UniProtKB/TrEMBL annotation:
<dbReference type="InterPro" id="IPR001789">
    <property type="entry name" value="Sig_transdc_resp-reg_receiver"/>
</dbReference>
<dbReference type="Pfam" id="PF00072">
    <property type="entry name" value="Response_reg"/>
</dbReference>
<feature type="modified residue" description="4-aspartylphosphate">
    <location>
        <position position="64"/>
    </location>
</feature>
<feature type="domain" description="Response regulatory">
    <location>
        <begin position="10"/>
        <end position="132"/>
    </location>
</feature>
<dbReference type="InterPro" id="IPR011006">
    <property type="entry name" value="CheY-like_superfamily"/>
</dbReference>
<keyword id="KW-0597">Phosphoprotein</keyword>
<dbReference type="InterPro" id="IPR052893">
    <property type="entry name" value="TCS_response_regulator"/>
</dbReference>
<protein>
    <submittedName>
        <fullName>Response regulator</fullName>
    </submittedName>
</protein>
Amino acid sequence: MSRINSHQKFVFVADDDEDDRLLFLDAVTDLDMPIAVKLAEDGQQLLDELNTALIQLPEIIFLDINMPGKNGFDCLKEIRTAQKNFHDVRVVMLSTSSSPLNIDLSYQLGADFYAIKPGSFEDLKNLLRKIFEIDWINFKKDEKKFLLA
């Protein structure tokens, strides 16, 4: 990944599926927004990168749930209880699972949103556009609006 400009949003994606990571990257590129993306192959790689970040933390972390080693729930729990201040980092669970149990657990553990991975490239772009256009400064977490469609 190239150097991150101060006017760019910086997001991190943790997903064990290489195709999903590349699709995410392609969708962000197509949106033509000032967004830098860093990719992690699993939860442990994400946590290692976050814990060694010296300059800039991501604004948003997109977390898959089902990953080997540290899954998305384990990562979310560590991010929300970390010694390092990740309070301002937003977390979006991005998963194929539509299980109400997974959605509820994500909310309880401190995710900001839960989104089911869209079935088409256009739908993924629309979802990401919607997330990137959120006014995070005035954002208030709302259980009724937690699941993004």
